[in-house]
Each structure stands twice: as C-alpha cells, then as structure tokens.
Amino acid sequence: LLLRLGSMALRQPLRRIQPVGYSNCARHASFDQKAPPVCLIFGAGDATGAAIASRFAAAGFAVCAARRSADKLHELTERLASDYPSAPKPRAFCCDARCEDQVASTIDEVEENVGPISVCIHNIGANVQFGIAETTPRVYRKVWEMVSLSAFLVGQGVSQRMVERGTGTIMFTGATASVRGGAGYSAFSGAMFAKRSLAQSMARELGPKGIHVAHVVIDGAIDTPWVRSTFPEKAAAAAKVGGLLEPDAIAENFFHLHNQPRTAWTHELDLRPYMEKW
User: Fold this and answer.
1) Which residues pair with 136 in a beta bridge?
2) pLDDT digits (tens, 9 = 90+) for 6-24
3) Which of 73, 134, 187, 194 pairs as cysteine with 143 (C-beta 3.0–4.6 A)?
4) Strand partners, 215
5) How many Cβ atoms are within 10 Å of 96's Cβ, its own excluded?
C-alpha cells in the first residue's frame, strides 16, 4: 500500500472546469445576492487546495487563497484568473495559520475588502514519520501547531463572523491518521486526531446556529508529482487501475458538501480509491 499522505503534495496542473452559476449556493448567503459568494482556503497548496480553489472559482465564487509561500500563491491566482475570466478576481493572502494575528487579519481583510465569507476550508497538514523514541518535543509541538492550533484559530475566527449571519460552511481536511494512529506517526496522528475532534465539537455547537461544519478524511495516496516521484513503481501501478485519489475528484466532494441542504448535512465524509484497503 502507498503511504497515506493526507493533503500535502507538490504542484500539479489544474483541470479547467466549465464555469457554472452559483445559484445553488444562494441559500447560504444572507448578504446582497448580487455579490458573489466568497470561498476562503487556508492551505491553498498545489494539489488538493488548488483543485478546491478551481472548483469554487468555476462556480463563480470569489476565491481567496491563503498559504505561507507568496510566490506559489500568485502562481495559483494567476492560473485561476486565466482559466475562469468570468469569475471574480481571485485574491492571494500570505498567511502563517499558526499565528493568531495573521489569521485574524486575513479573515478581517477578506470580510472587509472582498465580502462575507460563505465557505472556509482548512486544508493544512504536516505528515511526518518518526518513531516514538525519535520524536522530539520540538517536532511534536511544531506538528501540533501546524495542524491543530491552526485549525482552531481558523475555525474560531471565521465562525464568529458566520454566526453573526446565521449561515456558512467550514470544512477541515483530514487523513487516515485522523482516525487511525499508525506506527511511526505519533506526532501526525496526535495532531490530526485533535483536528478531527475540534471539527466534531464545532459541528455540534454551531450546527444549530446555521453553520455547517464538515470533516473530510482523505484515506489514500493522492495523484501528485510528489507521490509519483517518491513511489514511482507503486504509484504507476496504482494509477493504471484508478488506485490514486484525484485532486479534482476530492474538490468535487468539498463543493458538494457546501451545497447540501440543511435538512441533510454530512459531518464526516471519507474518500478513498475503490481498491484501497481499509
């Protein structure tokens, strides 16, 4: 089996999606219906994050992409603007989601200069593998900060705005490590378990207030250049039979979750290739 990688991956070309309207999402918005809905993505990386950004841009959302690397952010927003010229201009925000002030200022800037956030996605992971004896307190703390603390800061910050409006969607990207602690993954599993329980707590608290909180478990290897170069033989064999998760397919599920009617909300969704053992 391929190493389960969660949501981290290297650059991968975006598949252009035929733009569609966002009328299905209008029921989530309490603001001016003439204004496009806003999608804020923390961890807008080169595979899953970019695919999610592309899917929401295709639906007419004003996409706001946030990550630590400014150069890669601009690459993404330029591609989105080129692929979806009729969509609102995508915005780039350089933000370290471990820092309270940076998360707060990003949310404030989006709300003030782009529009009310309709959907927010936390797509940050830190997949490291160390035996328990080799896992230093520094490593454990840094992984916790990157995954768990950032999820808390993002969830708390954006939910306060959404509760005021009584509407919104918050989604967290999980991994196999969110539900099963594998040997050698004490830091990663501990952080991802915490992120999952945060999502559960938020869903139970905020659901009655009109906020849809969802957790998406990515249970398998994602088809990315990094996976193919790191595990060339296994990845090639799996790809031939559809054994790798496609970023665009993952993104489609995130979009579906946001569009669910409140009479039938999903909290946890697990995604894996049909042949993945679980």
Assistant:
1) none
2) 434 433 444 554 444 443 3
3) 187
4) 172, 268
5) 15
